[in-house]
Amino acid sequence: MNQHTRPNTRPVYLVDGCRTPFLKARGVPGPFTAADLAVGAGRPLLLRQPFPPEAIDEVILGCVVPSSEEMNVARIAALRLGCSERTPAWTVQRNCASGLQALDSAAQSIGSGRADLVLAGGTEAMSHAPVLFGRAFVEWLGNWSRARSLTARGRLLAQLRPHDLAPVIGLLKGLTDPIVGLSMGQTAEHLAWRFGIDRPSMDRFALRSHQRLGTAISDHVFSAEITPLIAPDGTAYTQDEGYRADSDLAQLGALRPVFDRPTGTVTAGNSAQVTDGAALLLLASEEAVERWDLTVLAQLMDIQWAALDPTEMGLGPVHAMAPLLRRQGLATADIDVFEINEAFAAQVLACQEVWSDRHYREEVLGDEPDQAIPDDALNPEGGAIAIGHPVGASGARLALHLALSMKRRGLIRGVASLCIGGGQGGALLLRAEGGMP
Amino acid sequence: MKTLWRIEQDAVDGICRLGIDDPSHAVNLLSVAALDELDTRLDEIESGLSTGLASGPHAHPITGLIIESRKAKGFIAGADVGEFDRLADPSEAERHIRRVHALLARIEDLPIPTLALIHDVCLGGGLELALACRYRIASDDPATKLGFPEVRLGIFPGYGGTWRAIRTLGPVAAMQAMLTGKTYSARQAQRMGLVDRVLPQRQLETGARDLIRAAPLPSRASFSQRLPNLTPVRGWVAQRMTRRTAAKVRQEHYPAPFALIEHWRANGDNSRGLLDGEARRVPELLLGETSTNLRRIFHLQERLKALSGAEVLRPQRVHVVGAGVMGGDIAAWCALNGLTVTLQDLSLDQIGSAMKRAHRLFEQRLRDPRLVRAAWDRLIPDPDGEGLPRTDLVIEAVAEQAELKQCLFAEIETRVPEHALLATNTSSIPLERIGEGLRDPGRLVGLHFFNPVARMQLVEVVQGTATRTESIQRGLAAVRALDRLPLPVRSSPGFLVNRVLMPYLLEAVDLLDEGVSIAAIDKAAVDYGMPMGPLALADTVGLDICLAVADTLGPTLTAPEETPERLHRMVADGRLGKKSGQGFYRYRDGQAVHESIPHGDRPPHDLTERMIFRLLNECVACLREGVVEDPDLLDAGVVFGTGFAPHRGGPLHEIAQGGWERMRERLDALQRDHGRHFRPDRGWQLTPAGLYRGGH
């Protein structure tokens, strides 16, 4: 891609957004499906708009593991939200950055003039991830349905072994890289080893994420971002469930490694939490903003995708942010906030490390090192380690939170970025409306 | 003459389609005109059996007959109830019934396969016609409903239904359907054996032709299903049925189910006996008091339904403020009926518990998980009132505090669109007071729902002095959109329903104070025909609410009464009725623990009269004051709002039946015996005609 030209397109504005509280997956299917979550976030969002849901031109949602009952979950959510039957809707999958991909696709639609008003975002019910039959058992079932005679069936029954019946947890399968055979946690272990990031700094980072989230919660930062969910049993969910006010270093330090046992450093405490949640945003063209007299939150300036060795997928944000800033003629100092998804503490720390590392930037990215990303500017109100990481939704959550926090704090530019399982990175540049270019 | 039935023959397979479209009704009815014309059409079919309907070179013998509706909705909803009222004497009714028997027998005797194609309602006479066909196919649409509702009108099936239902379903299932008047979905009907196939609408016609071509034996009750029809068993089964029916209704109030059981017991051997029994027994019931009164109630119900003109816009979006029991249940009911609802409350937990009740309601009523989810999606928790700017109707159901409501409406008025109707569910605060802070009080109406919302059919539509007629029209339309019965009432304390109930409840408490037992008091009311006794009713409503209503309403009654001390005491002690587990009754798991009437308890001879006459006296006062427009509306309101003994046809009808003069004298006598609580209202001094004209 030509890194010095900008695509000649219409401006794209982020006008509003809403997300559900992120609910901890507790080993059993949670109270909401992915479509329920998207509807839960989308309903209040659409309710407060000056236009009816039928005015939306397109609905795009990211979702990594849609359930078999909710294929093309975006279309299901669109219809349940009261969008017109004639509103096209599609679901995108780019692993951990599916929500960001949805925003990119929406921006493309608006930028190219195909749509004026797009509802985009992501939804994920990780607790509903399917439990699968193993391949051996599926084959056995196939033979069974073909077996006619009693003897053939008897023979098949005799062949069946208990371990054939062992279920495959879809979620674990999905979180393992099929090319290099490492689980996502193991790629984080790899980065920790390569860049010498030790356990205490990971735990400190994790604790800071909780503490920053705690401060933000007590400052009522999320009242503009989170909408409560109500389950059919009447329970109202109002807050992210991952936050632990009582977390401390001793507790974090006592956790055992999950991925490289027994001597690894990546634990459940310094990794993103498995959660259910959805975040939806409204993107609009200039025409739509004028037509409906919408208040603009921020302008979507640019998006960049990058790819790298799957073993080091955690460095994806660096690979995506570097060309993004370069193309926009910006440097670290021009960016007021960085929202980098906290898949693993080790991975974010590694990103921070290589961002200003001359050797890595020159050798691997072939560009100049940038100034370091200041701690204060990185995930200032907590990240996925405390909030949770519903994979399909996180990209949209980061963009929404970034826009809202920039507006609240009167900041001008911000970047949201994620690492992507399989060895990719994505980054988004927002400029607050009213801020100087 | 209007053409109702049209007949066409298919030139290829020779199957005839006989379709009805009754232009004078929204749904097809088996009226005399429809029967007359059916007669003629059957002549045509019978004479064209071998030659076909059309003459000429392409003539084809008739190979089958499909009876269907040519309306988009509804097969046949039953006989024309209005025509029954014009029958002068039992012999005329009997002639009519025997004629329909002959007509249906001709269909049954046709030498070709006959089939009823059922989409949407197929009730009463419509189902009896369908049962005369060899086969029945029903559409799987949720609107498809089959059943014998005759018993609700105080009669039982008379167009051969008792014979053909028993033949098809066996006596137990058939009697159960006819005794309960229950309606069945297409699937339920198929499981019972009432229909042969259930198909999606797109397959109805192909399926009908397929079944006619295949021409299997008609479906009949199995051997084991027929067993209870054997003479020795039948008597025993009938006895059991009688016992179980008697546990639910009283024979002197509702003779029809008992007459039906006896009819089956006596005539169940064969078709001749059953058909003959119908012709003799149904006319008696039809012209009897109960059926006449139940038909009156039926017509009153139709009148309430028709109060809202079809041209008045019905709301599609509703915003409910207050997610307490009433607000939450109103919101749920709105969502169930297809409206998009935003539910606002300060407390999210309150919204949560309302949503929980709503979900249970949706599951009970809709069953299909997709419909449940759609209703659930229509009910939107809205703590910030974001639904206001696009709503068509606001229903306020917050605590009964005038200032709170005033402030709320003043704020709501600034946020809702121009066209939105404002409604309050208040039961005790004058509409004029609530509307004080509004720029346009003419758009404020009362929509007074009753608890439990999902069971109480009536909604009072309250007109304040400032309320515009157009707002009332829209209020009536809103109630119809919710499939409830609207009753227009004037804004006066207690409106109609609470107002007439109050003296009746107070009298029950007075009787209790005089030492009459709870069981005796409630039994007297139930024996009269009330759905539950006054003390059980008070417990259900909640004694705190009763107390509040009694305090405001007591002094305004035609014979004012201060709230009995006992009520104050009970509320102060936390005995609030069903909800607190203890009121007049004790409750275990939500069920009242009934005590039998104490041995040797001799309730006063005028126990029933004392309670009922106070209610009747208040009805006269309401009519005199013009709380409702006319006596029929009053009767409708009291029957559908309080459950007042439907078989009596309404309180004013009851007075008319008893004789105006005689009833007034009786009230005078009660006043002599028991004092000022029985002071006759001034309305009694007018002639009934003068009062009914609205003389004040």
TrEMBL record, chain A:
Signal peptide: none
Annotated active site: C96, H389, C419
GO MF annotations, alphabetized: acetyl-CoA C-acyltransferase activity
InterPro entries with a match to the protein in the record: Thiolase (IPR002155), Thiolase-like (IPR016039), Thiolase_AS (IPR020610), Thiolase_C (IPR020617), Thiolase_CS (IPR020613), Thiolase_N (IPR020616)
Ranges of residues in domain Thiolase C-terminal: 295-431
Record Pfam families: Thiolase_C, Thiolase_N
UniProtKB keywords: Acyltransferase, Transferase
Residue ranges of domain Thiolase N-terminal in the record: 12-287
UniProt record similarity statement: Belongs to the thiolase-like superfamily. Thiolase family.
Protein name: 3-ketoacyl-CoA thiolase
Organism the protein comes from: Thiocapsa roseopersicina
Classification lineage: Bacteria, Pseudomonadati, Pseudomonadota, Gammaproteobacteria, Chromatiales
TrEMBL record, chain B:
Taxonomic superkingdom: Bacteria
Protein's GO biological process: fatty acid beta-oxidation
Its EC number(s): 4.2.1.17
A Pfam family recorded for this sequence: ECH_1
Pathway: Lipid metabolism; fatty acid beta-oxidation
GO molecular function per UniProt: enoyl-CoA hydratase activity; long-chain (3S)-3-hydroxyacyl-CoA dehydrogenase (NAD+) activity; NAD+ binding
Protein keywords: Fatty acid metabolism, Lipid degradation, Lipid metabolism, Lyase, Multifunctional enzyme, NAD, Oxidoreductase
Membrane-spanning segments: none
UniProt key word NAD: yes
Chain ranges of the 3-hydroxyacyl-CoA dehydrogenase C-terminal domain: 494-587
Domain 3-hydroxyacyl-CoA dehydrogenase NAD binding, chain residue ranges per copy: 318-490
Known catalytic reactions: a (3S)-3-hydroxyacyl-CoA + NAD(+) = a 3-oxoacyl-CoA + NADH + H(+)
Family: In the central section; belongs to the 3-hydroxyacyl-CoA dehydrogenase family.
Protein name from the UniProt record: enoyl-CoA hydratase
